[in-house]
């Protein structure tokens, strides 16, 4: 069976290393915080100006003034700190964030990323993704393998406006895990439970090597 959203998030959490400063994107990536491996201590950073985000609150713990970049209510931890958005992006642009886990609309076999707009549809803005992919040391994408219409989201070339060119290091989909050698190519390194290699090949436009 293909992985569900929680299983994709749990697999992405395996990429977290002790001591990492980590930025989680909107959507499935926010679930990664629920699967931090035992013994691994990380610090979550939010573009809107917070370092040290805690888990999502229970109903009686909600503070409407305490939100992440996706406007979801969150909690603080002992040692959490707050600062301006300018300082937050200075952290990102200065290379101080070890890992960003993002959602995507499309990823190319060379690591190009499209995740900020679909032409003709209203968008509120590009958000912080363009800065994240340019400044963060490692970028992992978590997304469904295909669109709602069944079209592959792992492509030879992205058709949507790019967030960044040759910026993705790993793509985790509901069918498996692909490592990406930026600018060179993609390799399937893990399959979801009961998913076959033939199934992945049939549903993937991008060319990829296999190392299972």
Write out key terms for the chains shown:
212 residues; alpha/beta; three-stranded mixed β-sheet; 4 helices; 13 strands
Topology:
Blueprint (H helix, E strand, L loop, with lengths): L4 H9 L7 E4 L18 E4 L3 E4 L22 E7 L2 H9 L5 E4 L3 E3 L4 E2 L14 H7 L2 E5 L11 E2 L14 E3 L3 E6 L3 E7 L5 H6 L5 E3 L2
Parallel strand pairs: 1-2, 1-5, 5-8, 6-9, 8-10, 12-13
Antiparallel strand pairs: 2-3, 3-4, 6-7, 10-11, 11-12
Task: Describe the protein.
The chain is α/β, with parallel strands linked by helices. It contains four helices and 13 strands. The strands form two sheets. It has a ten-stranded mixed beta sheet with strand order 4-3-2-1-5-8-10-11-12-13, with helices on both faces. Strands 7-6-9 form a three-stranded mixed beta sheet, with no helix packed on it. The model has no long low-confidence stretch (mean pLDDT 93).
